[in-house]
Amino acid sequence: MPPDARRILVIKHGAFGDVIQAEGALRDIRENHPDARITILTMPAYRALLARSPFIDEVIVDERAPRWRLDRMLALRKRLREADFDMVYDLQNSSRTNFYYRFMLRDRRWSGTAKGCSHPHRAKDPKKIRTLDRLAGQLADAGLTIRHTRKPDISWLADDVTALLAAAHVARPYIVLVPGCSARHPQKRWPHYDKLAEALISAGHTVVMAPGPDEMELAKTIPGIRLTDTHGLLNWNELAGVFRNALFVVGNDTGPSHLAAHIGTEGLALFGSYSPAERTGIIRDNFGVIEVEDLEALSVERVFNEVTRRLEAHSNSV
């Protein structure tokens, strides 16, 4: 049985792909605590996204100030304690949130990996477990019934983008390319999206991109329609709408690719050897991966053929 709770705190700082994958866990927490007030503690970048969640009542922003800033730590501690939470689900399970347990909320019931917490995740080495299985295991260890954690569905996030697409003269069907990723992880970028776009366009497909701030210059080198040219930078809700209406998405191991995977769009993610794709949780019935030792050596032909194969398989199943 889940612990009885009136006021629940969920902690999920990021990153974006991890926040997206926590959607099913949030739904299960809500179903197991239908009458509780649920608050989530997250980073500023995800405030608007999580405020839209139908399973959350309140969002508290954590600037994640350095822990030596005692004034900031004491202010956060005061706010969290005044909220009188009687259950905490730590879905971040980081050294920072373990510190929050010890310094701020040690006397509250706590689900996670913090040493000494009331509802510990009992997996031997949680960091080696696939993300969705890890979340499911933690919540099961806390006594929750698990129905959605392994099957996130963020269709509620998507805006109606009919006008946005019309302004860019984009008609369905179209394929979205996600050629970038965080500037901090250049090893995650497959360098041949320009050639893939040329091959897709030659095959009769409309190619669309919605680059983020780190990919604006890169997107200018790739054939296709850039939605930012007519609309400017898209927010997460608009990007979700673009993905939901797409025929297919091809992207790197980056947050937008996880968004596409968990909104139900057919797609393909490209992974190098830096991280096992299976552990990230991006592989779904609708979303596959190509995983190689050296991303730079991954040929355009192989990616194009896999896109074509998956499109044909999807068409035959509809």
Automatic annotation (TrEMBL):
Keyword rRNA-binding listed: no
Keyword Manganese: no
Keyword vocabulary terms for this entry: Glycosyltransferase, Transferase
SUPFAM superfamilies given in the database record: UDP-Glycosyltransferase/glycogen phosphorylase (SSF53756)
GO CC field: cytosol
Single GO biological process annotation from the record: lipopolysaccharide core region biosynthetic process
InterPro entries: Glyco_trans_9, LPS_LOS_Heptosyltrfase
Top-level taxonomic group: Bacteria
GO molecular function: ADP-heptose-lipopolysaccharide heptosyltransferase activity
UniProt-recorded name of the protein: Glycosyl transferase family 9
Naturally occurring in which organism (per UniProt): Parvibaculum lavamentivorans (strain DS-1 / DSM 13023 / NCIMB 13966)
